[in-house]
């Protein structure tokens, strides 16, 4: 690789989960601290960071497609960095197959991006694959500004080793960020404009630490302390594992107004044999009992989930069991995927791989049910009055878009509103993916 001039503009393209969105934002902050500015919309960036997700179907091949699309007509390319979980899993292979790539950095090592960029400018190609998340957070700049709805990573990695999942291999073992560090960062985010915080983790419900008094506490204790921050109006968290949800977090949902009535709790499948093959530690029955306890504590709770169809060996009857769970829970939203083998995971070598056309049919049938329930939830919301956190302008003059407490997208019109306001809105019309509202009162504090 030949030496190049330092880039003046960058673009980070993040794929997949909210953790990747968070990581992409932090990489942008690292680059901005070097004096590199985001490329204007529609203009080519001099540095492109592809922040990849290994959950995507054929994720690795899509990385090479993305790299190829960055090639200019004259045969040159911008500086390219590949980050995220595909980078962690395929680092040296990416370097071998894609000469246009200057940097490959794993999700726990991107604090080294400025130093890697310096070497790339001098003509060196480098990889960084450290899995020590503690070092990552220590090396990131402190955030002084924040959007109205901001992310705060509190936990990384996973020890569950579900047989289909690469997270333990690409993100490492579970680690929890220190309590005091999280409270301080949350305060800075609120001071910088955040009204809502979403606590992030591959298994966020496994977070634990010592509070200000030196007492061991879990997610509920952290949430209760965050709820004391003046100016913070809303708290959410994702993604949880059913095995780590305890009575304290259930009680918090019933007792804390700032903890939003929304819970993302993946089940993945509705049949116990399939769940066991996935190495999920819950059963259908224990999952449904957990849902009942949450709903008893917070009757207006909206449920979201994750589903995988076509796991190796899944029969039609076992898939029908998943549809039964959907019918019983009535999710307001869910993510659903066809099973896709991930190299190195136990499920990739299992017998009984399902034919693509069967998986496609099952996914379509599942999504029909999920879409039905999401629309029904929205329809049932019509007539309610709730606070909407304004996140951006809508398509039309005077129109704004925000989120309800149940994480629904809500459009409304008002002249004297600004981003970050909490506005009292009556929900008056429901569509499959959003609602229309009418303002009833001035913006809330």
UniProtKB/TrEMBL annotation:
Binding residue positions for [4Fe-4S] cluster 2: 158, 162, 165
Record note on cofactor: Binds 2 [4Fe-4S] clusters. One cluster is coordinated with 3 cysteines and an exchangeable S-adenosyl-L-methionine.
Subcellular location: Cytoplasm
Keywords: 4Fe-4S, Cytoplasm, Iron, Iron-sulfur, Metal-binding, S-adenosyl-L-methionine, Transferase, tRNA processing
An example Gene Ontology molecular-function term: tRNA-2-methylthio-N(6)-dimethylallyladenosine(37) synthase activity
Chain residues that bind [4Fe-4S] cluster 1: 17, 53, 85
EC number(s) recorded for this UniProt protein: 2.8.4.3
Entries under Pfam families matching the protein: Radical_SAM (PF04055), TRAM (PF01938), UPF0004 (PF00919)
Annotated coiled-coil segments of the chain: none
Family the entry assigns: Belongs to the methylthiotransferase family. MiaB subfamily.
Function: Catalyzes the methylthiolation of N6-(dimethylallyl)adenosine (i(6)A), leading to the formation of 2-methylthio-N6-(dimethylallyl)adenosine (ms(2)i(6)A) at position 37 in tRNAs that read codons beginning with uridine.
Xref: NCBIfam families: miaB-methiolase, MiaB/RimO family radical SAM methylthiotransferase
Subunit architecture: Monomer.
Name of this protein: tRNA-2-methylthio-N(6)-dimethylallyladenosine synthase
Organism per entry: Alteriqipengyuania abyssalis
Gene: miaB
């Amino acid at each position: 690789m030949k030496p190049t001039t330092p880039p003046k503009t960058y673009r980070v393209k993040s794929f997949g989960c909210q953790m990747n969105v968070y990581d992409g934002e932090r990489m942008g902050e690292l680059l901005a601290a070097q004096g590199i500015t985001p490329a204007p919309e529609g203009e080519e960036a001099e540095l492109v960071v592809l922040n990849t997700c290994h959950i995507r179907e054929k994720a690795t091949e899509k990385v090479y497609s993305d790299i190829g699309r960055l090639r200019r007509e004259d045969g040159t390319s911008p500086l390219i960095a590949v980050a995220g979980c595909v980078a962690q899993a395929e680092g040296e292979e990416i370097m071998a197959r894609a000469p246009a790539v200057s940097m490959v950095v794993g999700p726990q090592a991107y604090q080294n991006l400025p130093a890697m960029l310096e070497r790339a400018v001098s003509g060196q190609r480098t990889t960084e694959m450290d899995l020590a998340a503690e070092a990552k957070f220590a090396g990131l700049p402190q955030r002084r500004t924040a959007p109205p709805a901001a992310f705060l990573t509190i936990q990384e990695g996973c020890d569950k080793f579900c047989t289909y999942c690469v997270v333990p291999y690409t993100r490492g073992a579970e680690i929890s960020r220190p309590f005091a560090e999280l409270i301080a960062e949350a305060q800075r985010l609120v001071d910088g404009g955040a009204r809502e915080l979403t606590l992030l983790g591959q298994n966020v419900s496994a977070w634990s630490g010592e509070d200000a008094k030196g007492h061991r506490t879990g997610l509920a204790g952290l949430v209760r302390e965050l709820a004391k921050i003046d100016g913070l109006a809303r708290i959410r968290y994702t993604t949880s594992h059913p095995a780590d949800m305890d009575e304290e977090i259930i009680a918090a949902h019933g007792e804390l107004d700032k903890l939003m009535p929304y819970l993302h709790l993946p089940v993945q499948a509705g049949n116990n044999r399939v769940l066991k093959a996935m190495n999920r530690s819950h059963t259908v029955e224990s999952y449904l009992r957990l849902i009942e306890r949450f709903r008893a504590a917070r009757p207006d709770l909206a449920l979201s989930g994750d589903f995988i169809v076509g796991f190796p060996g899944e029969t039609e009857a076992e898939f029908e069991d998943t549809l039964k769970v959907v019918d019983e829970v009535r999710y307001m939203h869910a993510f659903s995927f066809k099973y896709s083998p991930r190299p190195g995971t136990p499920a990739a070598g299992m017998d009984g791989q399902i034919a693509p056309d069967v998986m496609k049919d099952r996914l379509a049938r599942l999504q029909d049910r999920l879409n039905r329930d999401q629309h029904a939830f929205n329809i049932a919301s019509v007539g309610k009055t709730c606070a909407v956190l304004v996140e951006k302008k809508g398509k039309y003059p005077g129109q704004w878009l925000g989120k309800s407490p149940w994480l629904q997208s809500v459009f409304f019109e008002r002249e004297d509103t600004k981003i970050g306001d909490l506005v009292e809105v009556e929900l008056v019309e429901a569509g499959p993916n959003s609602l229309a509202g009418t303002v009833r009162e001035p913006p809330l504090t």
